[in-house]
Amino acid sequence: MEKLVLVKGSEEQQEQTWKNHYVEWGKGLTLQQHIDRVLFLKTKRIRPTSIVHARRIDVVSWFLNLIPVDLVEEHDCESVASVFCPEQYRRRGYASLMLSLLYKEISPGRGASFLYSDIGTEFYWKSGEREKGGGYKAQPTDMLNLSVDTKMSAKTEVSTSDVQRKDVRAIIERDVTTLRHQLAHGGDITGDVSDKRVWFSVVPSIEAIEWLFARTLSNEERLGKKVEDIWGVQTADGESYALWFYDWPEDNLVFLRMRLSPSSDRSSVMIRFIQRAMEVAKAQGLERVHVWDPPKDAVRDAGLDITTREDHLPSLCLYVHEDMDNVVWMCNEKYAWI
Fold first, then answer.
1. Architecture of domain 11-140+312-336
2. Which end of the chain is more exposed for a tag (fewer CB within 10 A), N or C?
3. Residues of CATH 3.40.630.30 domain(s) within the chain?
4. Does residue 61 contact residue 331 with C-beta atoms inside 8 Å?
5. DSSP 8-state assignment for residue 130
């Protein structure tokens, strides 16, 4: 085992990997449809480098050190995805070794790395260099998981309009400016987190959003779906907005990013956004609406049931900050799942 090293996968190894993980991520698709989707999305990736069975994507993250000074720091960050080990090679230490080597490969010059775990919290935490872990620490996060037939009503009337694809870039640019301002001034932050020292957020980017849109559009021909040009909703003043994508073949409409203006009736705006999402989802033949890390104050005021996520667990490693117990991941939403 000690002689094994990370190498860049050849084209043949990549193709074999796609065939291997079809059993894990090819739900509702034939093997060829699965491979075609991977090839299509490969052209849409964000500065990727393939290493063995892990996909690395460069993104940008922000940190806010609340103590001793309020300062937003911008760091390079990498997302790790598509970690997979074939069944016949499991429980031999290969995956653990790969993650350990990948941890060391990423850390020089990077402020952070993150991934989404479908195998619990321990495996990725043990990939670090410290004796008891120090790798990727799972971050607690909740979600709304609603049937498209769920009934709800807002306290006040909210005027909204649909977001078309041509509108998305301007919304993302505005969102980045607003989020940075909130990080710097501690605004629009809810929940009992006053003892936390470091805030972390992945910068929303048009490239990441477009990659997720492409994932939806890749299913149009393969699954015979017709995607409407409705990718979100916003209030009349543009201060509150939400973006989503259509997750076929899982049959879910998933919110990518939701911002509720602090000056608005946040619960009423959120309810109207979800109502519109349900209308669109039902028209597209989808069954459920998912919202990752919804605003807790709005959820509470709306009387909705929130659940703890049990899969796609967001897991974070900060190379510039060792005390992971004192970190808050802000806007831990689906837009970062790339």
1. 3-Layer(aba) Sandwich (3.40)
2. N
3. 11-140+312-336
4. no
5. B
**pLDDT of the residue at 44:** 64
Residue recorded with tokens 């779906």: 225
Mean pLDDT, rounded, for 180-192: 60
Peptide bond preceding 294 in cis form (omega within 30 of 0):
no
Return the residue matching tokens 């831990």: 332
The sign of the CA dihedral 203, 204, 205, 207 is positive
The phi and psi torsions of 283 (rounded to 5 degrees) equal: -65, -30
Confidence of residue 260 (pLDDT cuts 50, 70, 90): very high
**Mean pLDDT, rounded, for 46-55:** 35
pLDDT of residue 117: 92
DSSP state of 316: E
Q: How far apart are CA 21 and CA 84, in angstroms?
A: 7
Q: Please write down the long-range contacts of 166-172, taking CB distance under 8 Å and 24 or more positions apart.
A: 167/234, 168/206, 168/209, 168/210, 168/231, 168/232, 168/243, 169/206, 171/232, 171/234, 171/241, 171/243, 172/204, 172/205, 172/206, 172/209
Question: Which backbone phi and psi does 94 adopt, to 5 degrees?
Answer: -65, -45
| CATH architecture for segment(s) 144-164+230-308 | 3-Layer(aba) Sandwich (3.40)
- Among residues 67, 77, 84, which one has the least CA distance to residue 119? 84
Structure tokens at 162: 């649909």
Instruction: Report the predicted TM-score, pTM, of the whole model to 2 decimal places.
Output: 0.86
Query: How far is Cα 267 from Cα 272, in angstroms, rounded to an integer?
Result: 9
